[in-house]
Design brief:
10 helices, globular, mainly alpha, about 300 residues
Length: about 300
């Protein structure tokens, strides 16, 4: 499953480094196990039931770790929750949701629904089919976006706290706790990946759900200004160049969204009048330039 996500490096793919994953990146370790337990069935009798139980317990522990992060309840040990691995874990959870997201939360006895009187059932068939559509399709997608939005906001806050976006090397705290087993180049690579991934994930989700991006405009310009070199002479350079193409596409998509859909009324007016065709013609050469720069060059 790691190949389906651009978040993690291949450092922890080596079994020799698993001890460091368990001892120094507890949130990332638990998140990887939680996601894996949902999509990989255990062999043998009762594998499905054991898989469900293990996933649920791991998700409960992930929630406890996230609560420790939110409330600043850091333990005085080498196992830290405020590190770059936690940022990666939060982004992973925004991509691969737990199973419980699609189930009602556990009742704590204080829900108003326990005392409210349910409305009388409606007899109109059209209304019931509409409600079923909202319940089966729209609401799960909305919950997914809401969860991702909050997780990415927490990841961005922690990134600022650790100095992920700082230019002054003396202010960097993201490497704390990794000395002795992760090289400086590897931790710098993880930092570069986190910068670009947060830019793409937050901006894409923001314009998809119609919210203002959490990343300041100045920070957007700073990240876009740090381009990868064209020479693939270091580990991870190929990934950085790929990520630059994704960032350029995200920037272009943001411009398209701002121009096509500034408001609902404006978008409706453009569709009725047919003026959107002129806007499409405006972006066609820009898309061709992106394709020539990032796709055709790769194929040569």
């Amino acid at each position: 499953m790691s190949d389906l996500s651009p978040i993690l490096t291949d450092f922890y793919a080596d079994h020799n480094n698993h001890r460091w994953l368990v001892s120094h990146d507890p949130v990332l370790c638990c998140t990887i196990l939680m996601i894996s337990s949902r999509y990989h069935l255990l062999p043998g009798a009762g594998g499905g039931s054991r898989n469900f139980f293990i996933h649920h317990r791991l998700w409960q522990h992930c929630q406890q770790l996230v609560m420790r992060l939110m409330f600043g309840q850091e333990k005085s040990s080498q196992s830290k929750v405020r590190n770059i691995g936690t940022i990666e874990a939060l982004m992973l959870m925004s991509e691969w949701h737990p199973r419980s997201l699609h189930f009602p939360p556990e009742s704590d006895g204080w829900d108003f629904d326990l005392t409210s009187v349910p409305p009388e059932p409606q007899e109109l068939e059209d209304s019931s089919s509409t409600n079923r559509w909202l319940e089966d399709m729209i609401e799960p997608a909305r919950r997914s976006d809401q969860m991702s939005w909050m997780l990415l906001g927490s990841a961005l806050s922690l990134a600022h706290e650790l100095g992920i976006f700082e230019l002054d090397e003396k202010k960097l705290g993201y490497a704390s706790g990794y000395e002795g087993f992760i090289s400086g180049e590897q931790i710098k690579l993880r930092r570069q990946r986190v910068q670009r991934l947060l830019y793409v994930y937050i901006n894409q989700l923001a314009w998809r759900i119609g919210c203002v991006s959490l990343m300041p405009q100045s920070l957007n310009h700073a990240i876009l200004g740090r381009r990868a070199t064209k020479e693939l002479n270091q580990t991870g350079d190929e990934w950085l160049i790929f990520m630059d193409s994704w960032m350029d596409l995200t920037k272009l998509a943001k411009s398209v969204t701002d121009m096509f859909f500034p408001t609902v009324s404006f978008a409706r007016q453009q569709l009725h009048s047919g003026r959107y065709i002129e806007l499409l013609d405006h972006f066609r050469p820009i898309l061709d330039k992106w394709k020539e720069e990032h796709l055709q060059v790769r194929c040569m």
